[in-house]
Write the structure tokens for this entry.
Amino acid sequence: MAYNILIVDDSALTRTVMERTVRMCGVEVSEIRMAEHGKAALDALNGFWPDIVFCDINMPVMDGLQFVQALQNSEEWHDLPVVIVSTEGSETRMEELRRSGVQGYIRKPFAPEEVAAMIQQILGVQSNAGQF
């Protein structure tokens, strides 16, 4: 089975690194879409059903938490698995993310093994987690 992935981050470099990392994981990918903030990510969902979303917290226009809350308030997208990828990790913010329904958290800078393990955990597929 091939998977659709959405990557949301205001840094073009981070989006590119995450895309390459996902492809290195050995999981079959159908399509990867990228967005520079939450509003653009909501627009990217038009006609696209991702199996997993990797999303930063601190972004302009619509931040990661606002994006996740918009998904949670949507009948169509409330079950979409979101993994936060961020440098921010305060206990207050982490609790807020847990309450909002985020399924995982990866701290930047991330290792390929962390991304592979998260894909395996959420999608239930084997990846190249130990082969980096």
Notes: DSSP finds five helices and five strands in the chain. The domain at 3-123 is CATH 3.40.50.2300 (Rossmann fold). The chain has one domain: 3-123.
